[in-house]
Amino acid sequence: MGLLNGTKKPVISLIGECMVELREEADGRLSRGFGGDVLNTAVYLSRLIGQGAKVQFATVMGDDPYSNELVSAWQSEGVNCDLVGIKQNSCSGLYIIKTDEEGERSFHYWRSAAPAREFMSSEWSALQAQVFENDWIYLSGISIAILGEEGRKRLQSALKEIKNSGRKIVFDGNYRPILWESREKAKYWYEQFWELCDVALAGAEDEHAVFEDGAAETTLNRLLSYRISEVVVKQGTGPVLLGTPSEITEAPIKPVMNVVDTTAAGDSFNAGYLYGRMTGQNMMTSARLGATLSASVIQHAGAIIPKTDMPEMEARDLL
After folding, report:
1. Catalytic residue of the set 213, 267, 309, 317
2. 22-52 in b/e burial notation, b at 16+ Cβ within 10 A?
3. 198 catalytic per annotation
4. Half-sphere exposure of 37 (CA within 13 A, CB side)
5. Looking at residue 52, what DSSP letter applies?
6. Which CATH architecture has domain 11-312?
7. Is the pTM here over 0.90, yes or no?
8. All structural domains of the chain with their residue ranges
9. Which site in 119, 127, 160, 225 is 20 to 30 Å from 153, CA atoms measured?
10. What average pLDDT values come out for the chain (319 residues) when binned by 10 residues?
């Protein structure tokens, strides 16, 4: 039985940030695209789920030409943009990716004035109300990092109100140290949001950086101690750990020989996993779907691969 059931078309609101992406090529020239961890998940989920669910991206963008381009690009991917606010006289954030010979990437950001940081302010309360009326709410550690202290408090309060309403909260613990004043501050807020979520999509490396977990199994057990009903712990090339209050197992990961760029590896895994659960697959098959998509994504440059390079994602092929 999938997470999203019934005859009503489910709505998923993904709260996050998207920026202009510049990628440095071997000859020093820059190519332009777009990216952001939650937006990446929204695009891939929209591609996979099609008309089976409404995938909404919730954020605030500027009124500059690049912001307009980004919103149009998301809409062309089938992402619903009704919850995208437009702040006058402002510009979207920007980042540059540098990639080493092993495909590992480093990021350099210009985002301090990005309007997405203001999403939980009173100015956008009408958009917030629509988000929290929907079936599913998805957010990440980057989502909460950029909101600042007051924004996090408002978001926490809103999620507490819907915690027992039948709506579901998905949290991806994506961690960027540069966005936090200290590890202790990040740890405090991660604990608050882990305790609120129903589905945990964690990365062992991120959780170790925040909580100093010694092993992925430690992370899994800690997250289960928060009474989260469904826990996924990603380990890069290692097996994905899967846990519920009654069962713990793992899904092996096939090695990828041609790694070009690991950007959006976790974001695309999350999309594949949620796609599986929405379409009635169990946690194991959903993890394999996530791994299949992620393996394709890391063999391409950039966060969003061409639609023509999307892998076959029929769950029955993975049973």
Report:
1. 267
2. ebeeeeeeeeeebbbbbbbbbbbbbbbbeee
3. no
4. 25
5. G
6. 3-Layer(aba) Sandwich (3.40)
7. yes
8. 11-312
9. 225
10. 58 95 84 90 96 96 95 96 97 84 75 93 96 96 97 98 91 96 98 97 97 96 97 96 97 91 93 92 96 95 90 59
